[in-house]
Here is the input.
Amino acid sequence: MAGSYPQIKLYAVSTCSHCRALMEFLQQNRLPFEFVYVDELLGEERRDTIKKVKQVNKRCSFPTTVIGEAVVVGFKEDELKEVLGI
Here is the structure.
């Protein structure tokens, strides 16, 4: 199952309830994902990560989820299911 889904990268903020809900959704669906709490990064790592987020989400809002070539901004369960084919 893990090999059948595109790579999932979640950019989140540690205090964001929508970010937590999205993580729970991914875990409940047993989807492998990487995440980074942008607010916990410092210095150059934080600047570089924010730059990456802005490349796919100009508003730099959270959560921002990159699924293969697709980007889902916010916790939009229906859109996530469609992109993931679940």
